[in-house]
Design brief:
The chain has 266 residues and is mainly alpha-helical. 71% of the residues lie in helices and 0% in strands. The protein contains twelve helices and no strands. Helix 7 crosses helix 12. The longest helix has 23 residues, at 240-262. It is globular and about 55 Å long.
Length: 266
């Protein structure tokens, strides 16, 4: 059959076979203990979903299949190391290990230039100053004006800030709180971590409520309903690029609020 004429079922079969091949290659690197092959096969689609979610945030220096390969290795290790005696669901544990493996792979690359880092830090400083002075986060237009740049230039900076947020070390101690994991906290935390996470979730809820309606809905649809940016774009009847910009802007505003709280502010 000529290339490009395969039907959907055949393409799905090819994709599944490719994932199995990736799993075998990944396992060949680490043969300490035979993992549950059936469980690995069952959760391989999760690897692709997480890799796709990373690709939504970033234009990574790795190919999509490189990220799938890294995530598959994380899944294999999760299957090998999982201990049901700890009270966690395998799906939750696997999600953390898969995402961690992909992010570890990405951390080996420099995603942001020093100049972009300076722009992000300057935007954070100015936004926080305005918030402290007025009691409200600045609008995108106001922040851009204070920074002496256009709104489109601001959005590029905020999308870069989102990339930095995504590949930062996960958890409350990181510079940018990992929003998705706050809204869907894993079951593997200690009681102290759960208490801290609950407090952070309460503050996050307050911060989300202070966003304008459109950005608030985008955050809730993306993190709670697990909708893609393309699907959200269809809901709002705007471009996917615009959803990405508003999502980055919302994350930036939430980061400013949470940093302010973390440092002792209100």
């Amino acid at each position: 059959m000529p290339a490009g004429t395969k039907n959907i079922s055949e393409r799905k079969l090819d994709a599944k076979q490719h994932l199995k091949a990736v799993a075998l290659r990944a396992y060949s690197r680490d043969q300490k203990q035979l993992p549950d092959n059936e469980r690995i096969t069952e959760y391989l689609p999760m690897v692709r979903r997480i890799a796709q979610r990373v690709a939504t945030y970033l234009k990574p220096p790795l190919s999509f299949e490189d990220m799938v390969s890294a995530g598959t290795l994380g899944l294999i290790k999760a299957s090998r190391d999982f201990d049901p005696g700890h009270g966690a669901e395998f799906e939750t544990y696997a999600y953390i290990r898969i995402k961690g493996a992909i992010l570890d792979e990405l951390r080996g690359f420099s995603l942001l230039s020093s100049n972009l880092n300076k722009q992000i830090q300057n935007a954070l400083r100015v936004s926080r100053e305005i918030t402290e002075q007025t009691g409200a986060a600045p609008t995108d237009a106001d922040l851009a004006e204070k920074l002496g740049i256009t709104v489109e230039q601001l959005y590029k900076t905020l999308e870069s800030a989102r990339a930095q947020h995504f590949v930062s070390i996960d958890g409350f101690g990181s510079e940018y709180p990992v929003l998705g994991e706050v809204l869907a906290a894993p079951d593997t935390m200690t009681p102290d971590e759960q208490l801290e996470q609950a407090e952070l979730a309460n503050k996050l809820t307050e911060a989300v409520q202070q966003l304008d309606e459109r950005r608030r809905r985008i955050i809730l649809l993306y993190y709670q309903q697990q909708m893609t940016m393309k699907q959200i774009a269809q809901v709002f009847q705007i471009t996917e690029s615009r959803v990405s910009q508003l999502h980055a802007s919302a994350l930036f505003s939430l980061s400013v609020k949470l940093r302010q709280w973390k440092d002792g502010g209100r």
